[in-house]
Design goal:
This protein is an alpha/beta fold. It has two domains: about 5-55 and about 305-435, Aspartate Aminotransferase, domain 1 (Alpha-Beta Complex); about 60-300, Aspartate Aminotransferase, domain 2. It contains 16 helices and twelve strands. It has helices spanning about 5-10, 25-40, 60-65, 80-90, 110-120, 130-140, 160-170, 195-205, 230-235, 265-280, 285-295, 300-325, 350-355, 360-370, 400-410, 420-435, and strands at about 45, 100-105, 120-125, 145-150, 175-180, 210-215, 240-245, 255-260, 340, 375, 375, 390-395. It has a seven-stranded mixed β-sheet with strand order 2-8-7-6-5-3-4, sandwiched between helices. Helix 7 (about 160-170) runs parallel beside helix 8 (about 195-205). The protein is globular and about 65 Å long. Pyridoxal-5'-phosphate binds next to helix 5.
């Protein structure tokens, strides 16, 4: 177990430690290890990194190429056209927005850190949650208050526990003032229902918490007919929405994120504080990337179609992996957005224990060492280290080459394509063998 895991777990379990994480974030570290093994010719099924393995849409490449000569520093918040496009993007999602409510950042990760740094107080996190929230909180010198997620979804603290956990934290001398929601969620791949979002927001409002709503997977929900509610619709004056182009358009390496601040004086003041952080840390988002972002956030038809096809593919492949883990005896909420499944092998604990697997780290190591399957144990997400849960990033199954990935995207039956079917068969074999007794 790395120092990062220990710090995050201790922080989430509220031990009075303020040790800063050291070392690369666990998902990136695992990716580097697995990529080296794949490059060396090993047969590894890499489900370890939350990256959409899809090619860049050619229209985005064109924009970038056309903008390559834009090389000056620009405004910290972003240039006018990208701010207008960002405002339009949110406006089409029932969040009327003026350009001066927007800030563009080099990735939503940077925007989130700037927000935590600019806001006062300690941070309430759903447990489990995306790896970086707790690390960022610690780097900002704040404490983490972990609250378990409800049984039917991740990404939000269980609303029936939230108030009591906030009260307990205050009794311990902590100062919870921020709650982060991830809808849809990484690591669980689920989307909190509107009623759950409403209940969490009601507690946040009563307790005076600011909501940071991470909606980076919103555009790749698997079934667009399922109702979606942003916390910003419920608590418009106290919610900042953060999103980006890393997941929906597979542009993680281009580093484009955006934050939408509440209308009114408080939101304006917070935006100014975030810009102060941005001005000292990243200055401005790379000018050619702002051109890309302005185009993407204006949502021309070819980009909308590309997003719809991506969401269908993510849904189909995540559902296939979900069937595989459930068939092997795991419990798992059905994936609804993004590209993750988060199975719980508790129902087969005795079988796993007979193989020496008693916790999440052991499960992660076993799958990699015995089957060449790379997943990230639940402990990396602040989940109980003794649990038998892991996150599988199913978007890694679309193929290794751009040709294979385009074929996956265009296929009416991607799980039937040989390069996808072969990996799914390997997963089914491994999960079945894992839970079957002696191998
Ligand atoms: C929930 C969540 N938020 C934010 C990010 C960071 O994305 P970006 O590439 O925009 O920094 C990720 C990436 O894994 C994520 O899963």
């Amino acid at each position: 177990m790395s120092i990062v895991d220990i710090c995050l777990r201790e922080s989430l379990s509220r031990a009075p430690v303020m040790v800063l994480p050291r070392g690369v974030s666990p998902n990136l570290a695992l990716d580097q290890r697995l990529s080296r093994r794949i490059a060396a010719g090993e047969r590894v099924v890499h489900l370890g990194l939350g990256e959409s393995r899809l090619p860049v849409h050619p229209a985005l490449v064109d924009r970038l190429a056309t903008a390559a000569e834009a090389h000056s520093y620009g405004p910290v918040a972003g240039g006018e056209s990208v701010l207008r496009a960002g405002a339009g993007y949110f406006g089409r999602r029932r969040l009327p927005t003026a350009p001066d409510q927007i800030v563009i950042a080099p990735g939503s990760k940077a925007a989130l850190f700037a927000l935590i740094a600019a806001l006062p107080g300690d941070v309430v996190l759903p447990q489990p949650c995306w790896v970086s929230y707790a690390a960022q909180t610690l780097f900002a010198g704040r404490r983490v208050i972990g609250v378990p997620v409800p049984a039917d979804c991740g990404g939000v603290p269980d609303p029936s526990l939230l108030r009591e956990r906030i009260t307990e934290a205050r009794r311990r001398g902590e100062d919870p003032r921020i709650v982060i929601l991830t809808v849809p969620d990484n690591p669980t791949g689920t989307t909190a229902a509107p009623e759950t979002v409403r209940r969490v927001c009601a507690v946040a409002e009563a307790e005076g918490l600011v909501v940071l709503s991470d909606e980076i997977y919103r555009d790749i929900r698997h079934d667009p007919a399922v109702p979606y509610l942003s916390a910003a619709e419920v608590l418009p004056a106290r919610t900042v929405v953060v999103t980006g182009l890393s997941k929906n358009l597979a542009l993680g390496g281009w580093r484009i994120g955006v934050a939408r601040f509440p209308p009114g004086a408080w939101g304006h003041d917070l935006r100014a504080k975030v810009l102060a952080v941005g001005s000292e840390v990243w200055s401005t988002v790379a000018a050619p990337m702002q051109e890309v972002a302005a185009y993407a956030f204006s949502e021309p038809p070819e980009i909308v179609e590309h997003l719809e096809a991506s969401a269908r593919l993510h849904g189909t492949v995540a559902a296939a992996v979900h069937r595989a883990v459930v068939a092997a005896g795991a419990r798992c909420n059905p994936p609804q957005g993004g590209f993750y499944v988060y199975p719980d092998f508790e129902p087969v604990r005795a079988v796993l224990a007979a193989k020496g697997i008693v916790d999440a780290a052991g499960l992660q190591s076993y799958l990699l060492d015995r089957w060449g399957i790379g997943v990230l144990g639940g402990h990396h997400f602040g989940d109980e280290p003794g649990g038998l849960r892991f996150r599988a990033a199913t978007s890694q199954l679309y193929g290794l080459t751009a040709d294979e990935q385009w074929a996956s995207l265009r296929s009416a039956d991607p799980t039937g394509l040989p390069h996808v079917a072969g990996q799914l068969a390997r997963l089914r074999e491994a999960f079945t063998a894992l839970t079957r007794g002696a191998e």
